[in-house]
Write a structure and sequence with these properties.
Strand order of the largest sheet: 9-8-7-10
CATH class of the largest domain: Alpha Beta
Radius of gyration: 21 Å
Low-confidence stretches: 152-156
Mean pLDDT: 93
Distance between the termini: 65 Å
Number of helices: 11
Number of strands: 11
Shape: globular
Order of helices and strands: HHHHHHEEEEHHHHEEEHEEEE
CATH architecture of the largest domain: Alpha-Beta Complex
Amino acid sequence: MTSLDPVRANMRDTFVACRAGTLDLFAQIDDSEFREQPHPWFSPVGWHLGHIAYTEGLWLLKTLGGVSLPRPDLEPVFDVKCRRNKAERCNLPPVAEVLGYLGQVRDRVFARLAAADLDQELRLWHFILQHESQHSETVAFLHQLQNGPNGIEHRSDGSGLDGEDLIAIPKGSVTIGSDRIDALDNERPSHRREIDGFRISRFPVTQSAFQAFMDAGGYETERWWTAEGWTWRTTNGIDRPLYWRDGASDHPVSGVSAHEAEAWCRFRGVRLPTEFEWEKAAGWDPATDTRHPYPWGETPPDGRRCNHDRLAAGTSPVTAHRAGRSPTGVMDMLGNVWEWTSSNFSPYEGFQSFPYEGYSAAYFDGNHRVLRGGSWATRPWMMRTTVRNWYTPDVRQILAGFRYAKDGLEG
């Protein structure tokens, strides 16, 4: 193998590590689950594996290098523009054939890496790494959807953390977004934004805190719900979070829609934070008036600071990663569960699509809500205080919970 310079060697090692996690996840999936559509909104997990290969080849081989992809007969199977009806994506080649396709594309990508002009291409290589990370997480929550919650059991301290524990964040301007080489198009450009003083909960809302809402008849009481949320709840017969785990009182509630999160907030007389409040609380250091890519600073995520990358294969207590707290004292802001915000997904001023028009821009439709923070299944390359996830407020199959906020610094 040709010796690579440090930048290329690091990129190769990172791609290898990301792929190892993807393949480890698929080691748990049998042929039936591989091609079964778990929900009308989502494709079979096997389609995601082939789509990872196709997208990597499309951009890093065909678009950048003019290099043809192996198995052109599989392109219409895994190209997102084809078979838009996700139910049709169940018609997949055998698992071994898809794995072979994945390996063939990767071999050509690594052969091209030695001569790639990374000065010009590095942002796209980072995008492909994060694209695989995103689809790997989708496979993880679809696997949970089909098989139920799991994970390493953590001893609960019994408190459930259901009282108010709010952190005051003073008024002031802060840098929002990122211009890092790995920043996705919707994170860009970084800019200053003035944010009024607010308070935000130290921890995500736990199952214990959510249980109080359920015990008080929250799912049966219309006044706690928006009109849209009440229609959604009654139409679908929703009476509890999707990924409820008995005995996990101090774990964050998981598998809730934005409608459920807002109903709980109304019940408690609080609200969801905006995405900009969330980002300030997560990454801003009041002592230096600087902003960090991670709540704890500049060091990439690890298992001591946050629950991510399927290290626990499920949620953990919200107090389990105290080393990951932000400078303002807010806990568990990266990993464990994605957190709904009150903000619609929209472009920052000066937004430019990358690497194609529809990646983010197609969802700037006023119907998608921003989530922040990542989950227990989020890969490390998709974890930053600036990352913006987006779904419509009726989706709860994703690994989502929430925390709450209040206006002002007192009261």
